[in-house]
Structures are given as structure tokens and as C-alpha cells.
Amino acid sequence: SPPDAAAALVALEKAQPIFSQNAGVHINYAIANLLEGNAETAESTLEELTTSDESNERAWYWLGVTRSDNGKLEEGLEAFTRAVDINSEYKDAWFAKGDVEGYLGKQEESEQSFDKVISLNADYAEPFRSSEMNDADVYYRKGVIAFDKENDTDAMTNFEKSLELNPENHNALYYKGLILFTQEDYEGSLQALTEAVRLKEDFANAWYWKGRANLKLLNIGEAVPDLQNATTYNSNLTDAWYYLGVVLSDSGSYEDGVFAFDKVTDASPENAEAWYFKGIDQIQLEKTEDGMDSLEQALQLNSTTFTPDLQANAWYLIGINQAGDGNND
User: Fold this and answer.
1) CA-CA distance, 208 to 211, in Å (whole number)?
2) Is the pLDDT of residue 204 over 70?
3) pTM
4) Helix (H, G, I), strand (E, B), or coil: what is residue 325?
5) What is the CB-side half-sphere exposure of residue 51 using CA atoms within 13 A?
6) N-term to C-term CA, the chain
7) CA torsion 25→27→28→33, rounded to 10°?
8) Going by C-beta distance under 8 Å and a sequence separation of 6 or more, which residues neighbour residue 120?
């Protein structure tokens, strides 16, 4: 873990004039400032150092870290590129370069940088890093790149390698669970996602897919709290609200079902199925006028997933209601 940055900063401020020609002191001074939130001081210190000594790869690396942490991703990438140009074995800089390239959407370049990291026999040189933990993160990032390309085989291989090095990588477990879900291995998916939420309790997306896996396995009693947790940790997760509404409605909790579907239709008014199921629940609650409005809203939407069977049932319920009101049109 990082040292006491405040105490280090005090000591390094005193050392700066004494060791004015010592680049390491200046770099450590910049790191201490960065850790204390003094990004401008850190950046200016490192810019002065890279100007006076353009061949100092560590100064370029930490300048990249400082810029990237400040949201200057393109400038950070330039600094990391300078660092690896100076020292092609600089594992930390290759890692950081691949990381920033990923955030910038440069997936091919990011993958190449991470491949370079894996190919190097060198250790990570910078403080606050552990080789196995960071190699685990490299494989995880490579897995995400493959996953985004819909190459599930390579993605799973990388996620498994990540978990071999760091079994507590909750993100790798999450993606492993997603892939197993799409492969209809719901037991395996549930196992991975259960471990992911154990490691990161507020992992809303993992709770959502855990709930979906439990639904596939007909573990309804476990699915409800999973979906509730998903919406608790991310109240904007409309897919979780939708499935929670479906499960609650099926169990006869119509008020709670309407509440869940309200969340969906408020956030995604184009979701015809949510309007439909909300209408069904409202009818069950004898809020017939609201139910008819919801069903009519569902029928007005052009949704390819709103199946003909559901549409036919909506028309039937509207017709029954109109007949009851004496409207036979």
C-alpha cells in the first residue's frame, strides 16, 4: 500500500533543494504530490524533469499517470508512449499504455500493448504494484477486448488465466458468469456470479445476472432478492426492474409489480412489454382504467419483442372491458 504521502511530501520538499540534480527525488516528490491530490504540482514537476532530461523513462511514465488521472488521456498516452520508446522493457508503462488505449476506444492498440506486457519477463518496477495482481488484470483486460469482439472462446481463456493469478478478480468472475449464461450453463454462471457478489457486495450488474441465472434454474426464491439487490445498488438498472416486476407479478405481488414496471416505463417508455405487464397488474388490482391505458400504450408501440400472443391478449382484455362498459365498437 502507498506510504504516508503527507509525511513523505514534507521530507521531499526539504530534500528538493539539497538534491536538485537527483531525478529520483523529483519523481518521488511528484508522486507524493499526486497521492496528496496536488495534481498540478506533480504535473509541473514532471514536465520540468522531462524537459531537462528527455531520456528519463520514469519521469515520462509518472507524467502519463498524472495526466491520465487528471482526465488528460491523450496527453497521458503520449507520455506512456515516450516511456516505452525509451525503454521497451518497461512493463509498468506498457500496462498503463494499454489501459489508457482501452479507455480511448483504441482496442487493437490496447490489445497489442497488453500482449507486450505478457511477453516481458521483467517485473513491474514502480511502487504500489504486484506482478501477479497486475498480470491478472492484463488477462482480464484482454478478456474484455475479446468479449467485445464477441469472441467468447478467447475471452473465457483470458478470464480463466486472470482468475488463476487472482481468484478474487470480481470483474473476471462477472464476465465468466456472463459467458456461461449465454452458453446456457446456468449452474456454472450462478457459481461465478455468486462469487463475484461475495467479493463485491454492491456489484449491481452481477446481482442482476445472478438473478437471471436463478430464474433459468427456477430458483424463484433466490432470484427475487438478487434482483432487489441489483435495483438497490443501481436504481437505474431497468432490466433488473423489469424481471423483478415479472417475478413479483407471477407470485401475486401486484402492487410491487406495478412499482417495478413503473420504474421501467419511466426510464424506457418504449418498452411495450413493461406497459403490458403493468396493465395486467393494474387490472388485478381493480385499477381498470389505468390498466386499459397501459395496455393501449403497449399496443401503440412498435416493438418486435412484443409478441403476437401478448398483443392478442391485450386486445382481448381491452375488448372485454369495453363490452362491460357497453361499448361494442
Assistant:
1) 5
2) yes
3) 0.84
4) coil
5) 6
6) 74
7) 120
8) 89, 91, 94
